[in-house]
Amino acid sequence: MTKEIDIQIACNYLLHEMAKEYKFRHFHCPNEGKRKPQYQIKLKKMGLRKGCPDFIIEYPKGKLIYIELKNEHGKLTANILKHLIL
């Protein structure tokens, strides 16, 4: 089974190369992983929310693409679906 982090790293490299031709910028929202409760509270105060997609691609004139990556056994949570379906 492929680790999701490996998929994210590969996609980041691909997006970095594609951005040169298609003129967009992208970033990864570090929303995964286990954290201490104190740090989770700090991140929430800073604006981090459950369900934020793995990558956000910004095109000129305000166009956005959200990308949520999953491995072969991954499933979309309700929080992710809320964020992706606006």
Biggest β-sheet: strands ordered side by side in the sheet: 1-2-3
Total helical elements: 3
Give the domain tally. 1
Task: Report the strand count.
Answer: 3
What is the average per-residue confidence, as pLDDT, rounded to a whole number? 87
Measure the end-to-end span. 31 Å
The biggest sheet amounts to: 3 strands, antiparallel
> What coarse outline follows from CA principal-axis ratios?
globular
**SSE ordering:** HEHEEH
Strand content: 5-15%
- Which oligomerization state do the chains in this entry correspond to? single chain
Describe the secondary-structure layout.
Layout: H1 4-22, E1 25-28, H2 37-46, E2 55-58, E3 64-67, H3 78-84
Antiparallel strand pairs: 1-2, 2-3
Could you characterize what this model shows?
This protein has 86 residues and is α+β, with helices and mostly antiparallel strands. It has one domain (4-84). It has three helices and three strands, in the order αβαββα. It has helices spanning 4-22, 37-46, 78-84, and strands at 25-28, 55-58, 64-67. The protein has a three-stranded antiparallel sheet with strand order 1-2-3, with helices on one face. β2 (55-58) and β3 form a beta hairpin. The chain is globular. The chain starts with a helix and ends with a helix.
